[in-house]
Every structure is written in structure tokens, then in C-alpha cells.
Amino acid sequence: MHNVLILIYHCIDNGSRLSEDFADPFYTVTGRSFREQMELISKLNLRVIKLDDLVCSILDRKPLQQDSLVITFDDGYRSDFEIAAPALKEFNLHATFFITTNNVQSETVWDKLTEMVKNGFSLGSHTVSHRYLTKLNPVELREELCGSKTIIEQKTGQSVNHLSLPGGRYNREVIKAAEECGYTSVLTTDAGLNNHLSDARKLKRWSVKRDTALPEFKRMVQFDSFELFKKVSTSVALRNIKNVIGDETYTRLKSRIARSKY
Ligand SMILES: [Zn+2]
Question: What fold, for 4-228?
Fold first, then answer.
């Protein structure tokens, strides 16, 4: 059975200083590392498919022809079109960009996103305000999911079928609301692989971080089973820690570590 590894990127910055103040330093990859990673995917001749292709194979229960990668970006930073899209274009690689609509602060940025769609990239929703969806009442939940979908579709003319969950938080109500708003897939931050038998409403991904070294990246994109096992174990442990200490304490601890490290 062939598998799909979905990579998550966030902000890409072009130097030692972070290009965008609100970006999480742990998940901000340097432009240089990003380019090296895309070059490696290209050199190794790895297959990068569209998220739509994976979702179609799940909906049709039709196995994929070979192990593949899907490249995604969360949050909607300016680096999506300033750094990532040009590098992806250079290596002829497809990606889906999940936009938090409140992060798009001008018509110029919407024009850039529309241009990305014209260049063959896909857009998905990362909600309106990036609040954790498990904390919202049904009305707020609907506004975050349906509202962001409508805005992106109206501004760019591209239909939005995929949702990426802020902070990876979800429960049964979130998944149900996503279905009701018309999403065909929901992407979590749970680490792991996907295949044609996966649940399209809970797709697994792996986050590339600032300190992800190229050899580690190479093992992941080549589906090294030990590396994958380590990532899945860490992801499960982290989820348990978040459940025990709560979102607020977890966020506070994380930003304290970030301040001392970066
Ligand atoms: Zn996010």
C-alpha cells in the first residue's frame, strides 16, 4: 500500500531576524533551508501530488500508484508569495496554502493570493481568526469555518474544499461543522501517514520546524520507518501534555522557551 506524507510549513524568513512578528519561531523555517528542502525533493525525484489527488483517492477508495508527498502552508504569511511560491515554482512543485482570513490585511495581498491560484497553487481555509475551534460555540464555529471559506472563494474565485485546523485542535463537533460547511477534507497536526483508506476528515501531517536538519528531513520524505515512529510518538506525547496542562499553560510555556532560545 502506498502512503502520502503531508508536510506543514508556516512562515519562511530570509535571515536571522523573523520577517513577521506574529510568526511562531519554532515553526519558522529559513528561506535557505526551505530552498534546500525543495531542491532535495526535486533531486531525489520524489512524487509531489495535489491535496485534491489524495482526497480523490480516499473518496474513490482507489490506491495511489506510489508513495507521495503533499506540501502545505498554514496561517497565510506574506512569505507564502514572497519566498515559498517562487521557490516551489523553480522546482515545479505544487502546494496548498491555508489562509487565516484575518491575516490578509489588504487587497494587494488578496491580489497576490489570486495570482498564486492562477499559477496553479491551491488555497484552503485556516479559519477567520485562528481561534482554537474546540473552544467555540456552534454559531462562532460556523462563522470561522463557513465564513473563511466564503471570503477566500469570493476574493480569489477558487473553490475552497480543504480546512486546516488552528493548533490542530478538533473534536466531533468541529468535524461535523466542517462537513456541514462543505469541506471535503480536514487536516490535523497529528503526525503520521495517509493512504486511500484514511479518514479524509482527519488527515495526518508532519510539521517542518526551524531546527529540522536536512538529513532528518531526507529520512522523513523517504518514509524512513524509524524516523516516522519517532515523530508519531512525539506527536502523541505532546497531545497528551496539552490535554493535561491545558492550552493556556502550554502556550505560556512554549513562548517562554522560544524567548530563551531565539
Ligand atoms: Zn495555524
Answer: TIM Barrel (3.20.20)
